[in-house]
Structures are given as C-alpha cells and as structure tokens.
Amino acid sequence: MLPRDRKRLAAAWRYPGVRQLAARDRSFPGLAARTLFFDTFVRDALDDGLRQVVILAAGYDSRAWRLARPGVTFFEVDQPATQEDKRARAPGGGPVYVSADVTHPGLGDELIAAGYRTQEPTAFIAEGLVIYLTEEDVVALLTRLADLSATGSRLAVSFETGFSDRPIARRLANAYYRRSGELWRFRLHPEEAPSFLSDTGWAFDDVLTASELESDHLSKTSMAGTLRTSGFMVTTRH
C-alpha cells in the first residue's frame, strides 16, 4: 500500500544500521511495541477460537492480510475517503470494509449490515484511537461495543496518560498535535482503567504499562531500553 518511494525506504529498513537509526526516533519504539501488542492480542483470540475481528478507525492497518486465517472475518471501520484510498492501494482479499464514523450511534447497524454476527464472540481493537475522541464519545463507543458483543468477546484499547500533568506541558503538546491536525482530547491513568472499563460494560482483564510493554515486546530487539511513551494498553472481556 506504500507509494514507490516509501517502498524503497521500507526495504532499506531491513539493514541493521538503518534499523538502529530508526530506533533513535522517539516515536518508533512505541509504535513498534504497540503493533506487536495488538498482533499478539489478535493471535491469542484466534487461537482461542474467535472468528471475528473488528478494527476501529483502521486506517492502513494490514492485519487482515498479515494475520488472516481460514474462516476468520476481519471488519475494518473507518471514514469513506480513507477506505476508498486504501481499496485502491491494497492487495486482493483482506477485510470487510465498513464505511462509518466510530462515534456514530448507528455503528452497530452498519456492522450488522456488513455481515457482523452478533451471536459470535469478537475481538475488538481500538489502537491509537481514543485519545482523539472526547470522553463522552469514548464512553459511548465502548458501551456500544459491549451492547453489540456476545459473551466471550474481547476488547484491546491503547490509552495515553499524556505528556505531563503540568498545564504548560499539556498546552505545548496539544499545540504540536494541533499543527499536525490531530488534537489529543482524552487521557486516562492506568489506575483509573478498571473502573472506567467496567462502567462501559466490559470486565477488566489486564493493563500493560510502558515498562511491561517494553519487557514483553522489545527486550530482545535492538530497541531495548529506548521506549519512551506515556501510553498503556488495556485488555477486557465480555
């Protein structure tokens, strides 16, 4: 799905020296660990017999190809314009595309119309999403997913605590992301996660802090010791 020049760059990353340079980018280890976390979440769910995966605000996610298995359906929810561009770039096969705003009250109806089976347990992924939503929208989305889920469904969410508790640092961070068109709106601290998730209808399972994320996914790589993130991962069950 990459443009030609980006494909050449991606090919160059296979060389050890280039990988080490990439690891110096403060965002790269965090994105790598986060990707590995969600990959593991999906694989574990499929190993346990789940046959539906819903990826929210999927963008150019490639799991529907990388983690494909016979009998498993991947649903990708995203804006129509993004999906139109992705369809033009993507290889054959892949997900069932569901063109919808993740905050729309009719999201469940859109999924069902696309073939989502409400009687079967599902693995839901909200990766790098909720920080850009208001708290009201996050609560509504997670509650909507719980109402849509059969017993045995699972949900994995990435949260951010934010750069700092200091107001000036928060304003600087928001100014940076506003220039990029992405304003951080929602933050949560790890100790708040269990009650927050249970209030939306999900049974809290586990929280993976930054140090645990690094230990589980980066400790045996060249990026060990380089993870700098205010994010944490949460898994839940229904």
Descriptive key words:
seven-stranded mixed sheet; alpha/beta; 238 residues; Rossmann fold; single chain
What is the fold's blueprint, element by element?
Blueprint: H1 4-12, H2 16-23, H3 27-47, E1 52-56, H4 63-66, E2 73-78, H5 80-89, E3 96-99, H6 107-113, E4 123-126, H7 135-148, E5 154-160, H8 167-179, H9 193-199, E6 203-208, H10 210-217, E7 231-237
Parallel strand pairs: 1-2, 1-4, 2-3, 4-5
Antiparallel strand pairs: 5-7, 6-7
Helix pairs in contact: 3-10
Provide structural commentary.
It is built from ten helices and seven strands. It has 238 residues and is of the alpha/beta class. The chain has a single domain (4-162, 190-237), classed as Vaccinia Virus protein VP39 (Rossmann fold, 3-Layer(aba) Sandwich), CATH 3.40.50.150. α3 (27-47) packs across α10 (210-217). The model has no long low-confidence stretch (mean pLDDT 88).
